[in-house]
Task: structure prediction
Amino acid sequence: MQNSKISNAIIRRLPRYRRYLGHLQNKGVKKISSNELSELLGYTASQIRQDLNTFGEFGQQGYGYEVDKLYKEINRILGLDREYKTVVVGAGKLGQAISNHNYFYKVGFTITALFDNNPAVIGTKVNDVEVHDVAELEDYVRDNNIDIGVICVQRDGAQSIADTLVAGGVKGIWNFAPIDLEIPDKVSLESVHLSDSLHALSFMIKHKIP
Amino acid sequence: MQNSKISNAIIRRLPRYRRYLGHLQNKGVKKISSNELSELLGYTASQIRQDLNTFGEFGQQGYGYEVDKLYKEINRILGLDREYKTVVVGAGKLGQAISNHNYFYKVGFTITALFDNNPAVIGTKVNDVEVHDVAELEDYVRDNNIDIGVICVQRDGAQSIADTLVAGGVKGIWNFAPIDLEIPDKVSLESVHLSDSLHALSFMIKHKIP
Result:
């Protein structure tokens, strides 16, 4: 499978597959057809079969998918079968909210340190994790083989933080600052644009979409 | 234009159009062709023309789009030409982060109150906005004609808060709890699934996608 063949659309669909399969597991559902998955997710059955076939042969003609097995396989496809050492940069409310989110630990994203430039918070702890001086960020990332940097700083400081994380050798950046970061291709970038989400909501309200 | 014709995909694209047009405006760009927009956004030029034609005639054959005008039109299409009275339920770190985000005020989402069930925070203020007892939520929403409720509580309490917001008469819910809420069709629902975003990142890291 060539990575150039993986569209952004499929990257967005796969985590939803995982989420719905998790719901089915919790309900004790053992198997499901691509038609049933289609109804649940709102994608066509052929879309679902095509997506999953990109990564292997999971279903059985005329039987469907085993929920437990497919959930496990999707976890593997999503890279959730390993630990990611993670740092959070910016120990404000958002950085604290992310650091307090125990779900992230549960699925393997271990936050080992926070960073901030405010002397008043450096040395304090959030959810038992220490806040370090942001001046130490690059060395810390390099010395501790950090995989992911989460950017929770204001717009203006975000690109410089991203550059530092890249220099330290992170593999991925999860960005919450409202800016389109410039990152070399060797590093994966996922930006959460909360304003886009809010504007989608106002659009839905205006056009009376549920 | 029938609302049933508006796909989820276009709802996701429109806020990005706005964001990139805002960047162009800030750079002083006055006009842009659909081909140039296409390169910037990664959608095909015909996709962009088709999206915009859904809402009116904004471009001129052989000239392209006036950036200022198109930005203003997209704001109108997105429903950003009015104020939304908004409450935030859950005054934890995430609720505080949302309430502190001045951008939301700037584009018309005025947070008039927060709500929580913790006696220790009821009566305190976040960004000059008072935290009320969640027991008063339904009455407050009804009496103050609140448009939007933002749900920043844990998974387990989220559906009940959503029911209360609906009973009070909100037009839209912006949900941050990791749960698929059940909401009547008359109310618009936008859920931010942070875990989906994080899983998309781990997928990109695993498959070396930039």
